Input
Amino acid sequence: MTMARYRPTWDLALDPLVSCKLCLGEYPLEQMTTIAQCQCIFCTLCLKQYVELLIKEGLETAISCPDAACPKRGHLQENEIECMVASEIMQRYKKLQFEREVLLDPCRTWCPSSTCQAVCQLQDMGPQTPQLVQCKACNMEFCSSCKANWHPGQSCQETMPVTFLPGETSVSHSSSFKIDEEDAPIKRCPKCRVYIERDEGCAQMMCKNCKHAFCWYCLESLDDDFLLIHYDKGPCRNKLGHSRASVIWHRTQVVGIFAGFGLLLLVASPFLLLATPFVLCCKCKCHKGDDDPLPT
Output
């Protein structure tokens, strides 16, 4: 990692150092990158690591300025991203963008077969009007609204999971194989309706598209359940997928974090109260000094 460069004060006037808001280091201007849309500036290494992390995790397709207090809420343009990441990471970014475009396009949809995932065209009949869609890649026929097998004359079941497995067709699925709804390998996010596949692991899921946390089995929201109390009772009891000791350790960490912040705030409060008059006094003096006329 590039280290911040420190020089004597008499040399700073010739080539001043710029502070990075991410790592708080100071670097010469040639080691900094300015975001064109908002003009926020960061060291190139920090900005590169920030962009790569978001793309690898698939968290965002529109990469925002890393400064949470950015006044213009700027975003990095595609050419800016391409200049700082490797080609394979850039390809993943473009793939995520394409998937997002298809998701928001009322005239396109994904084939729900987990072995196909081709893009299918829809007729312009409105997003709420179910229509028969036939995938040109695998010839599967499905409903445009609920993505289940085409069901003429029947209403869509919004909670119906996708239960066909790799290698199955819609015919074999409907006639000879059926999976319990709770054990379906692919389900839809209860908030944004994007398809999510679960191979194994924890039952606490987070949708990469809308960041909604929910239980895989009953689809109940876990956004506010930091301690995972949901798995202590009811039909999902002890179905989290972790040992009891692991759950207790998780809760201890969460409680410790909140307790630590509370203790820090409690300890710092008297010092903040004592420092407030001095800060206000300094500000008043500064404003008064600015209003003083220049000496003649």
